[in-house]
Amino acid sequence: MPFTINIHRLAIIALLTVNAIILNAGSPVSDAEYQKLKKAALNRPRTVMMNNDACDSRGTNLTADIFLSRRTSFTPGIVNTLIYCVGQGGFQQVVDLPHGETSPYLETVDVFQWLIDFARANGQEVFCSFRMNDVHDWRHTEEHPQISRWKQEHRDCLFGKTAEDKETLYGFWTAMDFERDEVRNQYLDIVNDVLQKYDVDGLDFDFSRYLPIFKRVSMGTVADDHLRGLLTSMFRKIRKAADAKGKERGRAILISVVLPDSIDYCRDLGADIETWMKEG
User: Fold this and answer.
1) Cα–Cα distance between 21 and 199 in angstroms, integer?
2) The whole model's pTM is what?
3) CB neighbour class for 240 (10 Å; exposed up to 12, middle 13-18, buried from 19)
4) Burial of 145: CB neighbours in 10 Å, binned 0-12, 13-18, 19+
5) Buried-state track 101-119, b at ≥16 Cβ within 10 A, e below 16
6) Nearest C-alpha neighbor of 201 from the set 126, 112, 256
7) I want to staple 83 with a disulfide (CB 3.0 to 4.6 A). Which of 11, 127, 157, 262 is the partner?
8) 271: nearest Cα among 183, 187, 180, 207
9) pLDDT given for residue 15 in this prediction
10) What strands, in cross-sheet order, belong to the sheet with 92-93?
């Protein structure tokens, strides 16, 4: 399955291109120039794209050298694109973002900026990866809290109230329901935070961590046009924000997604991947 997902990721990046990647550009460009950047992106060779799930950010007294030595320093000449996960557990971040919650042991360092600096020095692309849903916090109790502050304050946006009192047939109670405006808006805020703070070449949206994204679907139904439309609308806004920032910088920002390699299955989950690819 990981091999299938990685191959699928490459296909989606080629088809969901938001704009091109020219590593040393830096000036605003016109719409016409931007179209040329798009075309260049479609033809850019990428042999290896490595997704780093961010566990290398753990630990106290972390330095750039220690961080990079764990999973990154070997990559020049092998890996074209470094994809780094910045979000875990539902808006808990490994980086400091205005709308996020930084892990306590990372409040004084910025591991993602270390990664970007390394990539720039070695001619590599950097994608910022977001988990679309994350339920590693399902063991949360009031005595041993694990869920984020946002989830604590928006319990009605989750699939359930506790592990024993969940309202779904399938899945974990701490999953976020993307039918709720609050969830989609918070996600958009986080994405915009990243676009404003970091000089990224792409945004990656990883559905594979936990496939259910709509509570209704987790209750045993399949997504309808309304649910698919909500998610498509959210991704349109993400593309618009990425385009605006890319044009401003004169360097493109791509969008990639990690989804099952079945169009019908994606539609049933709520991801209208055909529409996303057609709209580019």
Assistant:
1) 12
2) 0.86
3) exposed
4) exposed
5) bebeebeebbbbebbbebb
6) 126
7) 127
8) 207
9) 39
10) 87-88, 92-93, 101-102
